[in-house]
Amino acid sequence: xxxxxxxxxIAIIGTGDLAKSFGRxxxxxxxxxxxxxxxxxSATAKSAIDKTGHDAIAMSQxxxxxxxxxxxxxxxxxxxxxxxxxLGNLDGKIVVDPSVPxxxxxxxxxxxxxxxxxxxxxxxxxxxxxxxxxxxxxxxxIIDNPMTVDGPVTIPIASDFxxxxxxxxxxxxxxxxxxxxxxxxxMARSVxxxxxxxxxxxxxxxxxxxxxxxxxxxDWVRKWQDDWGDPVVDAEHLAKMPEI
Length: 244
Description:
By secondary structure, this protein is an alpha/beta fold. It has a domain at 73-237: NAD(P)-binding Rossmann-like Domain (Rossmann fold). The protein has helices spanning 17-28, 43-52, 61-67, 79-84, 118-125, 140-144, 162-174, 188-203, 219-223; strands at 10-13, 33-37, 57-60, 70-72, 94-97, 102-104, 110-112, 130-133, 154-159, 178-181. β1, α1 (17-28) and β2 form a beta-alpha-beta unit. The protein is globular.
């Protein structure tokens, strides 16, 4: 009888709303979950453990990152800067950045909070890690229940490492979502711009919000009157996205 494959340990740095949503879903999927907290004995950390169940544990942020095979960073800016530079050696680890590095402009609307992008800074601070920008364009309720909105929610992902993108894409599918490869990590700038648009109804206290839902189609192939025989951009480096 074949033994079941042992699943990776998921380290989730932080114990906020999105962190707990990730923790609960991954735990239910059978992944060991460890939360990284500035105070693992705090009521907030204990609440995250209790709500996650499935033998989830909490420890310091650095210890959690070292223990995890895959590290999620659902941390707000500017706290991200301190946290992401204090996790120890992350060489070879997949680091998933769902953060939205924005600040409120003088007119009240969001503006770019960091340059060139949050994900690229995290990669600079941890050059041996494999940083993937993902999950930055949706609310925690989509992680809790992907059927909250009609139709599958698409998650754009960007990274300079194909193997990391492909692994994160499989996570996305397991969570009931649809992964789309946007290319190299510098495309995180576009993802984070989308995320700022996402924040607008929250800032204005609108009665409704929005989710980003991309739809696949082949309409452009017909309209361009192209035989589609030209070389494919980045053909040797395209990640293989799983079927959904």
